[in-house]
Amino acid sequence: MAEETPGPVGQGDYVVREGDCVSSIAEAAGLHWRTLWEHPGNRELRETRGSPHVLLVGDRLTLPPKQTRVVSVGTGATHRFRVKGRREKFRLRLLDEDRPRAGVDYRLVVDGEELYGTTDGGGWLEHWIAPGAREGRLSVEEDEEYLVDLGALQPAATEAGALARLLNLGYLVPGDEKEPGALALGLKAFQRVQGLKVTGILDAATISALVEDHGS
């Protein structure tokens, strides 16, 4: 159970939908993600959520107007302008009962783009992907395949966000999250491993530890 389930925060005309993150919202609006994230009108959201990658459905953002850049050029000549494509860093860690899966070959497909590599010594894989990407499919070695739901992670202080992190960290088995009492069961297991007071309650210390251990 959670001590308190926080609701949506922020102000502005844009209402966060499922799968949204600051990067995808900024990309659709033709903005750089920092311009959106650091806008004064989004201060409450920024201070509450802490990460531009983890928003709650119903949060609100203020979208600043796009600024027009003026460039002086000579007449009677051809000029070329290059627009930099915006990419987002995607990081994922593979673990086996808390042990990093190092040196594992994988194939990651994101919006039709195929990416290949080998996990590093910490079990991490890292790639640059499109900000608006919604889904990825990860194939590990020859017999493992995982669906990666990009942008769907809810804040750790919510029940859905805590359950997702417990699942990703292996404290719950897929399907268990639908059972009554699953959150308390997973939290107790997590708290025990982390050396926290075992209460089964999603308190501030547990939320902080979940975010740190999960990486977001």
Automatic annotation (TrEMBL):
InterPro entries for this protein: LysM, LysM_dom_sf, Peptidoglycan-bd-like, PGBD-like_sf, PGBDSf
Signal peptide as annotated in the record: none
Pfam families: PG_binding_1
Lineage: Bacteria, Pseudomonadati, Myxococcota, Myxococcia, Myxococcales
SUPFAM superfamilies with a match to the protein in the record: PGBD-like
Location of the Peptidoglycan binding-like domain: 165-210
Name of the featured protein: LysM peptidoglycan-binding domain-containing protein
Organism: Pyxidicoccus fallax
